[in-house]
Amino acid sequence: MYTIHKNVQIILAMLKAYGVQNLVVSAGSRPIPLVFSAEEDNFFKCYSIVDERSAGFFALGLIERLQKPVAIVCTSGTATCNYVSAVAEAFYQHLPLIILTSDRNHYYLNQQEDQCVPQKNLYSDIVRKSVDLPIVRDGMDFWYCNRLVNEALLELDHREKGPVHINFQIDDSYPVEKALYKFEVPALPSVTKIDRVMPTDSNEKWNALADELKGKRILILWGQHLPLSEYASALAQTFCEQFGALATSDVIGNLHIENFVRSNWYGMVDRTKFESVMPDIIITMNANRLLNIKARFNNAPQTLTHWHVSPNGEVSDPLKRQTKIIECTPEYFFKRLVETGIHNTKNYYKEWKEVENEIFDENSLTHGFDYSAVSAIQALISNMQDGALFHISNSNNIRIANNFSIPKTVDVYCNRGTCGIDGSTSSYIAQSYISGVPSYMIVGDLSFFYDMNSIWNRYIGKARIMLINNSCGALFHSAYYEPFKGVRDVDVNVAAAHHATAKGWAESQGFNYLAVRSQTELEQTIKIFTDPNTQTPLFMEVFTDAETDVAQIKELGKCSLKGMSMVKNKLKEALPASVVSVLKKLKK
Prior knowledge:
about 600 residues; alpha/beta
């Protein structure tokens, strides 16, 4: 029987998955759940060494002779300090030592409790990875512990060998009274081992990786990336053709290949239709993305797996299904798999294109929206020159722009790494100044006013800034989220409502200032704003209504579906123009 402490169950199951059999155990009560469970499992070989300092060096002797990782286990408190010299030796000898330190619940730290010292960072400078396992109370805790143990054990021989530290908390009274001594679980839980693939791995390993893609539906989630070279784009397309893969991305991904499906409607597909074309393998690459696709896979079959391609080799498991970390650039990944010569027997891209053609209506996005942030952004994108630079500030603006077709020759930028509104205009000014091509920016009022000093410099050049000013942060406006309705002062303290304008500041910094307050003015002014012959910097402040913006954003999220856009267009055609005009006024 095994302990009822789930974090310990995970440690033991993962040690078995990684083939770690030898444990050097020192005396103490805190690690009883792990030690007694290991003793009951014939897979493990336990050595009892009372003195922790001696135990650490005993383990190093085993590692050197067996050429395999060995774990040391001790109780909480100063016992953990006695490992320091052996851990330091393992670090500088590059020996794969696993330090398992049991700990008390962190609630008790510095509360005059027995055997309770800060343990989780005790060896931080002399281990390759240190993780701290919480007490497992639910499924999220279980996944988190599973991931952390993977992260630690993967570092035992990542590029070079060395020690790793796993600190695990034990609560005597959780999940039941005297839990420390409860051994009632007949089998260890199912855990997920994450395998690492390196560029230096053999051709056989890369061939096996490619072989796993046979007969599978492959979805590439391409995150934010700088504009790609023609060579990199060609590699991505060749991979997708050879393996029948589908790539999806946002405008900030700058991915322009044939086997591509827009991300803005990907999340709109109904559950039944989505399940009929559910991927088998999801491969994530690059940085952040707008598309919050995780929710779509909450009810996916357990057979759905996730690979992550990353040059730094760090585990990233947003879907909670990761089985592989492939340590290389996307270009190298595509090239190496294409070179295997292996072809997939499933064409997932073709299946998705059939779904896209069935439900997606590109033309519906060209119809006129009511005057709003949506119509302003649509107007700029529609009038933008090929080869332009386009910086979109984070929050609503980037979400809106993601729904429209931006020319493939336009390079798109956004400070999306942390999803904050900081510094968008400052980044754009630098990009615009050195780009040598027509450069445009869309920025929201809070983002611009937060970064006002961005235009207080001598590098403005031919910058063109469109400021969407709806007098608040519309993403947090009470009309945007149902839970916000009726909340006192939400528009003041959350959405930061204001009555500021950028006119005086923009003009004082040498911009030719343009103001827009209606759709008619927008259509007239956008021609001036995008005129390639204009040599002066332009600042176009578009004043909109927050509630109308929110309504149009919600409309935008629906209109690309064929059924809804067809009904809407038929209604418009059936009504006289005078009635449509009255309805618009009433809506406002």
